[in-house]
Specification:
The chain is mainly α. It has helices at residues 2-18, 20-26, 58-62, 68-93, 97-105, 111-121, 126-153, 156-163, 168-179, 181-203, 214-221, 230-251. α4 packs parallel to α7. The two termini are 17 Å apart.
């Protein structure tokens, strides 16, 4: 039952993030950029989450520009897991001390420092967000898969396949990858969650496509939180709905 609820909550959050403008049109919400009321009006029947510091409808703004919070983490999760699996395989197959030292050196770089450096030099476009997220994930994903592969490659069925004359490529494809299906899903889930938080943080630095996201709505709503708590609570709950269900599914033995 818990898994069903978490999948439903996560699916709704994904749909609202990706298809928010379409949902806003169906619900006939006002233009998210036009003032339609007083400043920081509390929630009401007319404005379900009230208004912001410029009198704009918060519900409409919440559905205006959050695709980056899903698209960037999904792309980053796929690339991070694929790269981590490749590097983990190379680390096991061709163990070199310097190879692991280079990857582990990335662990000393705080994520926010890397994002600030990228922002100062290139701007925080979605492409650079993906690059930064993948780079920061390499030590974790590669070591995760390296530890798993060391156990898998030492298993008896791998020795049997080698003795039968199978090539390493065939062994990895037909014997190893099926065993790694769940670890791959687990790593993708973790990378997705981490990148959502990193992308949300980057929104405060002006990253992405320049639109408001749930993260920036929290920041802009803090100045009037005593007048309209929903200006902060609603986007915060939306981010929770996007990140907590995958964590719960992992604890329940499921993965994305």
């Amino acid at each position: 039952m818990i898994r069903g609820v978490m999948w439903s909550v996560w699916s709704v959050a994904i749909v609202l993030a990706l298809a928010g403008p379409m949902v806003a049109g169906v619900l006939e919400l006002p233009n998210p950029q036009e003032p339609i009321g007083g400043l920081f009006e509390p929630a009401s029947a007319e404005h379900i989450f009230g208004t912001d510091r410029l009198g704009r409808d918060i519900a409409a703004r919440m559905l205006a520009g959050n695709a980056i919070l899903v698209v960037v983490p999904l792309i980053s999760a796929v690339l991070s897991t694929a790269t981590g699996l490749l590097l983990g395989t190379l680390a096991v197959r061709y163990a070199k001390p310097g190879f692991r030292m280079f990857l582990d050196a990335l662990l000393v770089i705080p994520p926010i420092i890397l994002m600030l450096a990228i922002a100062a030099s290139t701007g925080l476009s979605p492409g650079w967000l993906v690059f930064g997220s993948v780079l920061l994930s390499l030590p974790f994903s590669s070591r995760f898969f390296e530890s798993i592969l060391q156990r898998v490659l030492a298993a008896g069925f791998i020795e049997t396949a080698l003795c039968s004359g199978q090539r390493w490529q065939d062994i990895l494809l037909h014997e190893v990858l099926p065993v790694l299906a769940r670890p791959i899903g687990t790593d993708m889930s973790l990378r997705f969650i981490a990148t959502v938080y990193l992308t949300a943080t980057a929104s405060f630095l002006g990253g992405g496509n320049g639109d408001d996201t749930w993260a920036t709505l929290i920041h802009s709503g803090l100045s009037g939180v005593t007048l309209n708590p929903w200006g902060v609570a609603a986007p915060a709950l939306a981010i929770i709905a996007l990140t907590v269900p995958p964590s719960v599914l992992l604890d329940q033995g499921d993965s994305l």
